Amino acid sequence: MTSSTTIRLDDELKKELQKDLDAAGISMNAYFVMAAKQLVLQKRIPFEILTEPEIPNDTTRKALLLADAKDEGIIPDNSPSFDNVHDLMKSLEEN
């Protein structure tokens, strides 16, 4: 005996999923049945869960642009650099 289940998917996700399943020759129903059976058999999610790569926020984006501009000589880089914490602390104490 089988029962019907409704799954709600974002339209774009469904479109991409359907395209990939069509290319593999697998129906959407077969895919979800396979995933469900593997979860029951393995007692775990049967695939690695990935996240979207992090997109730099505005602060990070500005810091990257500033660093690139300094590397290219567009903006002069007259800020001191340090190889160790001792030299950094000494410089801070002097200023």
TrEMBL record:
<dbReference type="InterPro" id="IPR007337">
    <property type="entry name" value="RelB/DinJ"/>
</dbReference>
<dbReference type="InterPro" id="IPR013321">
    <property type="entry name" value="Arc_rbn_hlx_hlx"/>
</dbReference>
<dbReference type="Pfam" id="PF04221">
    <property type="entry name" value="RelB"/>
</dbReference>
<protein>
    <recommendedName>
        <fullName>Damage-inducible protein J</fullName>
    </recommendedName>
</protein>
<dbReference type="InterPro" id="IPR010985">
    <property type="entry name" value="Ribbon_hlx_hlx"/>
</dbReference>
